[in-house]
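Below is how a single chain appears once it has passed through the pipeline. First comes the sequence as given, then the structure the pipeline wrote out for it. We keep one example in the README because the format questions we get most often are answered faster by looking than by reading.
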Amino acid sequence: MRKISYWLIVVSLVLIANNIWSQEMTYFEVIDNTSVGLTVTPFEKGGLALADIDRNGYPDIFCLCWHEPGYSRIYINTDGYFQDITDQSPLQQIESNEIGTCTTLWVDFDNDGDKDLSMATKETIHLLRNDDNVFNEVSEEMGFVAPKPPGWITEWDCNTCGWADYDVDGDLDCVISQLNNPNLYLFRNDGDHFTNVATESGLDAVTEDEELWRSVFTDFDLDGDPDLVGRRRIMRNDDGYFIDITGELGLPENGNYWYRRFFDYDNDGDLDFFKASRSVEEDTEFDELWENQDGVFVNVSNEVGFISQNLRHRGMTFGDFDNDGDQDIFMDGGTAAGYDNLFINDEVAPGERGFADVAEFAGIAKTGDRKGCGFFDYNRDGFLDIYMPSAEFNHILYQNSADNGANWVGFILEGTVSNRDAVGSLVTLYTPEKTQIRLTRCGDNHYHQYNPWVHFGIGYETAIDSVVIRWPLGERQTLTDVAINQYHEVKEGEETAVERIKDETTPTSFRLKQNYPNPFNPVTTIQYDIINDSHVSLTIYNLHADEIASLVNDRFQPAGSYSATWNGKDSNGNVVSSGIYVYQLRTVNSLEMKKMTLIK
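Resulting structure:
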């Protein structure tokens, strides 16, 4: 591979002098906070959690209060505009009584369809159940309580590090770490309560502090069960028992890094490893990229043109910001002077990859306080935007200008047999030019949760060969004829799809059309028109008025024409019997029903 010095000089000269990439690279614009409803939040911030907590089709924001005084904020996103609903939660009360919120994660722990909130402070952990966007604490009744570790300590810094289905039983479990306590808590989800199973899982015999501190779940070997990545150790999940294999992988056992991520930077079908430096005081710690070479990781930072930074990063995030089919890296500079880093990933020669920091050329211009960062598509235009909490600026929202003409596709997954959030799903996308993979997670580094939607850039490809989803419990689902430049909502085990019909005109009347074909076997299509932006439900019933399947479940949809398909299966994936069924379309102000016939 080419060395960094030559490649980066060439790229910089091209960018500055010739501007040859102007047709390929997108540009970020700073959005005024008040114009999108992001209110003044006068407190020191230290992290974020991004997710569509009410499943209305737009990703929401949790802005984390790091130190007192102040309290964290919850912002619900509707069509790109945010509303503060923090007063519908006990956050203010919790954070006024406890010091320092450490981590918050959105997770549907009870598989009821909306995202609940797990959080930790320096004193304890909390679980807030979401009931129609009103949050109630259920920590005690669910047994979600981490005791104070033994010994004479004054601070134990709890962290709800991550959620995953570690025992592959269909619900999400949680791992908790504490400062000054080398052992982890592993809270197994038993439906009506949580049980700490750290002992039988091999996580209570750690000897060194901070080895597994702030661990996150990720399936680094892609074998279908979630492993643990600690601050300095990698633990492989072997049928529910975790084994330290850091040395076996060739990864460094020591290092003061808090931010790390497994991702496929070279699109070869396995996950590589990236770690960011933590402290400017430690001259031996740098940002590093380690390539997965047949299960052993090799440091290729210099070979791919990745400048080693010795900075105090407060966050990093991964995504294809220019939609060219390669995942890029964004790292904020914390409180350091100068720009943040936006490393664009590109193929610089056949078989050779390289990274170049293009932040200042891409409009990343804010300096000063910024702690935490995340890519997310807040306005659903298919190009990834950047959110950063900031004490100095309250919020920093960079909107991706999306002016390079590159294509994309996205997937919003919902488990039916597996966990509802589909955490642990592996999505593989095939185009004529390349293969890409994405692995869904809940918990991404210290103080961070990125939006779990699956997003792929496909460059100037105009068609997708296929998409294969490996769901958390192992079922594989193949999608073909996938339309590009839109998000697809996909349920596990169902062929049902709902798409907006592209039309320049807005419907003039509310209308539910007759399904076709009718009678049908095994799939039928239902089209409908809505004249106002509204929450929409499209539901299948039998003649006894029993609900059979929900094709659209109280989903926010802009005015327009839509097409839904039903594959003759109920909400549990079972094929229903022949007969007459009723399908009902409901919005806030309208209701209409029609009959259809399934024949065998």
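Residues 48 and 63 are 5 Å apart (CA to CA).

See the next section for the split statistics.
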